[in-house]
Amino acid sequence: MNTFGTIFRVSLFGESHGPVVGVTIDGCPPGIKLTEEELMSDLDRRRSGARGTTQRVELDNPEILSGLFNGVTTGAPIVIMTRNTNKKPADYESLKNIPRPGHADMTSKIKYSGFADPCGGGHFSGRLTWGMVAAGTLAKKLLSPAEVSAEVIEIGGTTEIDRVIEDIIKENDSVGGIVECRITSQYPGLGEPFFDSVESKISHIVFSIPAIKGIEFGAGFRSATMRGSEHNDLIISSGGATSTNNAGGINGGISNGNEIFFRVAVKPTSSISRPQETIDISKNRLTDLVIEGRHDVSIALRMPVIIESAAAIALADLKLIDRGISGERENR
User: Fold this and answer.
1) Which residues, at least 6 apart from 169, have a Cβ–Cβ distance to it below 8 Å?
2) What is the mean pLDDT of residues 212-228?
3) 99 cis-preceded (ω within 30 degrees of 0)
4) CA 242 to chain centre
5) How many angstroms from the chain centroid is the CA of residue 249?
6) Strand locations in the chain (E)
7) What does the alpha-carbon distance between residue 84 and residue 48 come to, in Å, rounded to a whole number?
8) Paired residues of 178 in beta bridges
9) pLDDT digit string (tens) for 252-262?
10) Are 55 and 297 in contact (CB under 8 A)?
11) DSSP single-letter state for residue 259
12) Could you give the C-alpha distances from 248 to 19, 63, 220, 238, 268, in angstroms and in order?
C-alpha cells in the first residue's frame, strides 16, 4: 500500500500534477524540534535545476499542518505537504490511450481499471519522493548521532559524470547510474530476523523509490566470486570492530556497529525524446511515440538525498522497535 513502517509509519499522498504532494508520519516520539527551514535543507537537494535534470522547477516549500506545537513534535501524526505550482496536466491529454514505455501507464491502467491519474505518472511519479525526503529529515534526527550520506559514484558505467551527461543530452536519450549510501556511528543490535532484518527493511523502502532496479550491501554481488577466508570480516575488538567490512555493517540481519553501506542501481529515465514504439489502445495498433516536455537526463543525479531519506526511515523504525524490545527485557 502507501504506508511503510511498524512504529515509525510513513504514508505518501498526492499526484504529480495534482494540487499537492505530501506525507503523514505516525509514531514519531514527542519532544523533537522540527522547523520548515530544516526540512528545506534536504528538499533543496532533491530539487531539479542542475545540468541533466528536468526543467520542471517547483518551489517545494513545506507546510507542516499537524503534529507540532511550538516547533516541537507532540506525538500525534505529523502531516507535511507542498503545493504543486508548476503543473501542466494538459501535456498528457494526448497520452491518455498511448502508454509510455518504461512507465507505469499501462500497469496502472490495468490495475485501476482506467481510473488512475495519468498526468506525469500521477501517484506513481518520482514527484512523490518529496514526502519521503521530508520524513527522512525527521528520521535523521531520530538516528542522531549517526550520520547518513549518499553520493552518485557512477553514471552510465563511468565516473566521468559531466562528460556522459553532455553526450546523452546531445543524443536525446537518458542514462542510469549508481548511488552509494553510508551510515556511520550506527548502533549495534538493530534489526529483527528474519523479515525485518536491516537489509530487508532498507531494501523494501529503497525499492519503493521509482527507478531503483538493484541493491547490494557491502561486497554485494562480488561476494559470489570470493572465498570465505577472503569475505569473512575478522573481529578485532570486543565492541565488534572488524578488520574489513565486506558484510556492509550487518551480520545475520543485525547491525554490528560498523559502518552500514550499500549501493543501488538507478535505471535510465523512461521519458526520452527519441521515437519509441508503443500501442495506441484506442485504435489497437502500434504507433511511434516521441515524448515532449520536461524530464531528467539521469534521475540518478537527484537520487542521493532520496536514498539517504529511505535508509534513515528504515533505521529509525528499527531503532524504535529495538527500544520497545529492550524496554521489555529491562522490565522482566
Assistant:
1) 52, 297
2) 98
3) no
4) 29
5) 20
6) 3-4, 9-14, 20-26, 63-66, 68-69, 72-73, 78-83, 147-155, 177-184, 212-217, 250-251, 254-255, 260-266, 276-280, 285-289
7) 14
8) 154, 265
9) 999 999 999 99
10) no
11) P
12) 41, 37, 8, 19, 26
* 244-to-6, 219, 221, 270 alpha-carbon distances in Å: 32, 10, 17, 38
Letter for the amino acid at 172?
A: N
Do the Cβ atoms of 291 and 271 come closer than 8 Å? yes
Backbone torsion region of residue 221, taken as left when φ is above 0, otherwise alpha when ψ lies between -120 and 50, otherwise beta: alpha
The three cell numbers of residue 22 are 505530501
How far apart are the C-alpha atoms of 288 and 275, rounded to whole Å?
6
Residue that the C-alpha cell 507540532 belongs to: 68
Whole-number Å distance between alpha carbons of 100 and 106: 8
Question: The whole model's pTM is what?
Answer: 0.93
Length of the chain: 332
CA distance 293 to 130: 21
> And the C-alpha cell for 15?
499526484
In the prediction, which pLDDT does 290 show? 85
List the grid coordinates of 11: 504514508
Low-confidence winner among 222-236, 246-260, 311-325 (lowest mean pLDDT) = 311-325
pLDDT tens for 145-154 read 999 999 999 9
Q: What is the rounded average pLDDT of the residues 13-26?
A: 95
Task: Please report where in the chains the cell 513545506 appears, as a residue.
Answer: 62
- Residue 101: half-sphere exposure toward Cβ, Cα within 13 Å: 15
